[in-house]
UniProtKB/TrEMBL annotation:
Its EC number is 1.-.-.-. GO terms for molecular function: flavin adenine dinucleotide binding; hypotaurine monooxygenase activity; N,N-dimethylaniline monooxygenase activity; NADP binding; trimethylamine monooxygenase activity. Its main location: endoplasmic reticulum. It is a single-pass membrane protein. This is Flavin-containing monooxygenase. SUPFAM superfamilies: FAD/NAD(P)-binding domain. Broad spectrum monooxygenase that catalyzes the oxygenation of a wide variety of nitrogen- and sulfur-containing compounds including xenobiotics. Catalyzes the S-oxygenation of hypotaurine to produce taurine, an organic osmolyte involved in cell volume regulation as well as a variety of cytoprotective and developmental processes. One of its GO terms (cellular component) is endoplasmic reticulum membrane. Belongs to the FMO family. It comes from the Eukaryota. Keywords: Endoplasmic reticulum, FAD, Flavoprotein, Membrane, Monooxygenase, NADP, Oxidoreductase, Transmembrane, Transmembrane helix. Transmembrane segments: none annotated. The keyword Phosphoprotein does not apply.
Length: 559
C-alpha cells in the first residue's frame, strides 16, 4: 500500500500533485531546488541553470477560467489574461488554501531516483537529495511523482547555422531573454516563430531599429480576443465544438479556420503561411504580431542559410547586413537526469508513457510523470487530472493493464500523434485537450454524464455542453467532488466580465420598492447557490414587471 510519496518540483504540476496525495490520504514530500514555488512562473532577473526561465513582460495566453485548478477559481477581479506575477499569486493562494507549504522542502535538489533492491516485492524507490549546504540525504518512498517540467534545457542548435562562430554581435537563446533593454537602436534577428519568438519579436520591435523574424515552416497566428471581445478559449474550447470534431472530417475544420484567419490577415501576404494545416500544430497566439508586420517593424524571412560576420544570409538568397543581435527561439530539449535510463520507454521521438503518465515497463506502477503534456489548453488542469488519476492508481483504486498491453497502447498513441500532428524531436507530444481530459476523468469516475444532466439539471447541462471546458466540470461528481463546482460553472462568465467593469454608469432608483426587491433577489440567489428556486423565479418576475411599468422611477438624468 502506497503511503509516502516523493514529489519532484513545486511548480503548478507539483503543487496539484501534493494536493492529490493529501486528498487520497497519503503523505507527500515535495522537493524544490529553488527557494520558492511556482516553477516556470517564478520570474528571476538572471536565468539559473537547469531551471525554467521567463521574461519580464510575459502574460499567459490562456484565459484565467480555463487555466485555474478545478476547486479554486481565480479571483474575479484578476484580469482574464494574467501577467506572470498574478499567476504566481494565484499559486500562493492555492498552496495556502490547501495547506501545501508544510509539505515542501525548498532549496533541495534531487540527485537520483533509483529502484530499491526489493522493488519487485515492495515497489519502493530510493531518492537521494542535496540541500543548499551540499549535504546529501537518502530517503525511501513508496511512490514518486516527477513534475520537473520540459522548459528547462534550452535547445541551441548552433551546428545548423554555419558561420555562427564568425558572428560579430551577440547571440543567445530565448531562455536568457528578460526584456528589450539591449535591443535599443539595434538590428535584431529572431530565429523561430513559436509563442516566445513572436513575443520577443514584437517587444523588441518597439525599441530596435529593425527586427527580422526567421522561420523555417511558418505558422498560423491567432488572436487572444475574438467575437464580442471574449477570450479565444472560452469561445471555442467547448464540448459542443469537440463533438462536432468527432462527427465531421478534420480537413473541413482546417479549411474553415484557415479561411477565417486569412480573412483577418492573409497569411500568404504576410509571409506567415505555414507548410502544415491549422490543427496539425499548436498555433502562435499573438494579437500584436500582424500589426508589427504590417507596420514594417517586423520583417518575416525564411530559414537562415549561413552567417558571415555581421551578415545573415537566408535560404532565398536575401541577406541582412549589420546585424547586432541574434535570438534563438528554438525550443527546448527535455529529460529526467535523475531517473535511470532503463526506467523510460522510448517510442518514436518521445518518451513513451501510458496515457502520458506511467512508464509502461515497470513491475509496479509507483512512478508517475505529471505535467509532461502539450495541448491547445492550459497545463494546470491537465496536470491536476493526471495527478488525481496517478494517486488513485497508487492507492489501488484503479488497476493498470499488463505491461504488454500498456506498451501496445503507447505505440498506438505514438502512431496517432505522428498521423494527426506535426511532431519533431522538440515537440514529440501533442494531445487533444477535451479527449485527454475526458479519458482520464472516465478512469477516475469524474467525467460529467451529459445524458443524466439533461434529465436532472437542464440549466447545468446547457452550460457543460455549450459553455467553456473549464475544469470545474470534473468536480461535479465522483471522487473529490466539490460542492462549489456547480456555482463555479454558473458564475464563470461573471468572473470573466468582472475585471472589465471599470467604468459603469450608475442607475439611481427613486422607487424604494424596486431597489428593495433587487437587494432581496440578490440575497436569495446567494443563499440558494443559483439552484432552481421558486422564490428567485417569483421575485425576478415581479422585479421585471415593476421595472417595465415604472420607468419613471429612473432619474431622467440617467436616461
Amino acid at each position: 500500500m502506497v503511503h509516502r510519496v516523493a514529489v519532484i518540483g513545486a511548480g503548478p504540476s507539483g503543487l496539484t500533485s501534493v494536493k492529490a496525495c493529501l486528498d487520497e490520504g497519503m503523505v507527500p514530500t515535495c522537493f524544490e531546488s529553488s527557494n520558492d514555488m511556482g516553477g516556470l512562473w517564478k520570474f528571476k532577473e538572471v536565468s539559473e541553470p537547469n531551471r525554467a526561465s521567463i521574461y519580464r513582460s510575459l502574460t499567459i495566453n490562456i484565459s484565467k477560467e480555463m487555466m485555474c485548478f478545478s476547486d479554486l477559481p481565480i479571483p474575479a477581479d484578476y484580469p482574464n489574461y494574467m501577467h506572470h506575477s498574478k499567476i504566481l499569486k494565484y499559486f500562493r493562494m492555492y498552496a495556502d488554501h490547501f495547506k501545501l507549504l508544510k509539505h515542501i522542502r525548498f532549496q533541495t535538489v534531487v540527485k537520483s531516483v533509483r529502484q530499491r533492491p526489493d522493488f519487485s516485492r515492495t515497489g519502493q524507490w530510493e531518492v537521494v537529495t542535496e540541500d543548499k549546504d551540499g549535504h546529501e540525504e537518502s530517503h525511501v518512498f513508496d511512490a514518486v511523482i516527477c513534475c520537473s517540467g520540459h522548459y528547462t534545457y534550452p535547445n541551441l542548435p548552433l551546428k545548423d547555422f554555419p558561420g555562427i562562430e564568425t558572428f560579430e554581435g551577440k547571440y543567445f537563446h530565448s531562455w536568457d531573454y528578460k526584456g528589450p533593454e539591449d535591443m535599443y537602436g539595434k538590428r535584431v534577428v529572431v530565429i523561430g516563430i513559436g509563442n516566445s519568438g513572436g513575443d520577443i519579436a514584437v517587444e523588441g520591435s518597439r525599441v530596435a531599429e529593425q527586427v527580422y523574424m526567421s522561420t523555417r515552416r511558418g505558422a498560423w497566428v491567432v488572436r487572444q480576443v475574438v467575437d464580442n471581445g471574449l477570450p479565444l478559449d472560452m469561445k471555442y474550447n467547448t464540448r459542443i465544438v469537440h463533438i462536432l470534431f468527432q462527427l465531421l472530417p478534420i480537413n473541413f475544420f482546417n479549411w474553415m479556420v484557415e479561411k477565417r484567419l486569412n480573412t483577418m490577415y492573409d497569411h500568404t501576404m504576410y509571409a506567415l503561411k505555414p507548410t502544415h494545416r491549422f490543427f496539425s500544430q499548436i498555433p502562435v497566439i499573438n494579437d500584436d504580431l500582424p500589426f508589427r508586420i504590417l507596420s514594417g517593424a517586423v520583417i518575416v524571412k525564411p530559414n537562415v542559410k549561413e552567417i558571415r560576420g555581421s551578415t545573415v544570409v537566408f535560404d532565398d538568397g536575401s541577406m541582412v547586413e549589420k546585424v547586432d543581435t541574434i535570438v534563438f527561439a528554438t525550443g527546448y530539449n527535455y529529460g529526467f537526469p535523475y531517473l535511470p535510463s532503463s526506467v523510460m520507454h522510448k517510442s518514436g521521438q518521445r518518451v513513451g508513457l501510458y496515457k502520458h503518465v506511467f512508464p509502461p515497463n515497470l513491475e509496479h506502477p509507483t512512478l508517475a510523470i505529471v505535467g509532461f503534456i502539450h495541448a491547445f489548453g492550459a497545463i494546470m488542469p491537465q496536470a491536476e487530472m493526471q495527478a488525481r488519476w496517478a494517486t488513485r492508481v497508487f492507492k489501488g483504486y484503479k488497476k493498470l493493464p499488463s505491461n504488454q498491453a500498456m506498451i501496445k497502447a503507447v505505440e498506438k498513441d505514438t502512431r496517432d500523434i505522428e498521423k494527426n500532428y506535426f511532431v519533431s524531436k522538440l515537440t514529440p507530444l501533442e494531445v487533444d485537450f477535451v479527449s485527454y481530459m475526458d479519458d482520464l476523468a472516465g478512469d477516475i469516475g469524474v467525467r460529467p454524464n451529459l445524458l443524466w444532466l439533461f434529465f436532472t439539471d437542464f440549466p447545468l447541462f446547457k452550460r457543460v455542453l455549450w459553455g467553456p471546458m473549464t475544469a470545474y466540470q470534473y468536480r461535479l461528481t465522483g471522487p473529490g467532488k466539490w460542492e462549489g463546482s456547480r456555482r463555479a460553472i454558473f458564475t464563470q462568465f461573471d468572473r470573466m466580465y468582472q475585471p472589465l467593469k471599470t467604468r459603469q454608469k450608475q442607475l439611481k432608483y427613486n422607487c424604494k420598492f424596486h431597489l428593495q426587491l433587487k437587494l432581496s433577489l440578490d440575497t436569495c440567489k446567494m443563499k440558494c447557490s443559483f439552484k432552481k428556486c421558486p422564490l428567485c423565479e417569483l421575485m425576478t418576475f415581479w422585479s421585471h414587471v415593476h421595472l417595465k411599468k415604472s420607468m419613471s422611477c429612473l432619474n431622467k438624468q440617467n436616461l
